[in-house]
């Protein structure tokens, strides 16, 4: 089964054999850390939309954060599933582009907020 080609991988617990539980738990902790990040982005997006309505560009900013939250949550599941499957099949852990994507998006949001702040002050 080729897990790397699937956008949404199937349940990885159906392949291979159970790895050392410590690795499974570490993989799960990493997944939960990404989910906490997604929740923080969602909270920031909702706050931007609802708490700062007078700020120029609050809606696009909030929507961008909500989309980033969705990408983070979906990427977290994909990363967890691919890593779990690799451990069960005795393969190397697959690379993930999630950290690069989130870093670039967070930098773009920071620049956008700075620009919007400057425009709002003018």
Structure explained in plain terms:
The structure is a single chain. By secondary structure, this protein is an all-alpha fold. It has one domain. Helix content is 71%, strand content 0%. It has helices at 21-51, 58-89, 98-121. Helix 1 (21-51) runs antiparallel to helix 2 and helix 2 runs antiparallel to helix 3 (98-121). The chain is elongated.
Order of helices and strands: HHH
How far do the termini sit from each other? 57 Å
Number of extended strands = 0
Query: Which strand-content bin applies to the residues?
Result: under 5%
Q: Domains counted in the coordinates: how many?
A: 1
Describe the main β-sheet briefly. none
Morphology: elongated
Determine the fraction of residues in helical runs and give it as a percent range.
over 70%
What Rg do the Cα atoms give?
A: 18 Å
Structural class, from secondary structure content? Answer: mainly alpha
Poorly predicted spans: none
């Amino acid at each position: 089964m080729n897990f790397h080609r699937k956008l949404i991988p199937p349940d990885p617990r159906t392949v291979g054999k159970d790895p050392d539980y410590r690795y499974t738990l570490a993989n799960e902790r990493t997944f939960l850390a990404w989910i906490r990040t997604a929740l923080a982005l969602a909270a920031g997006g909702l706050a931007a939309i609802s708490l700062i309505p007078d700020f120029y560009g609050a809606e696009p900013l909030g929507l961008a954060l909500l989309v980033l939250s969705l990408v983070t949550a979906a990427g977290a599941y994909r990363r967890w599933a691919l890593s779990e499957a690799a451990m069960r099949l005795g393969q190397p852990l697959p690379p993930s582009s999630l950290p690069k994507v989130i870093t670039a998006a967070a930098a773009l949001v920071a620049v956008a907020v700075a620009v919007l702040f400057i425009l709002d002050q003018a």
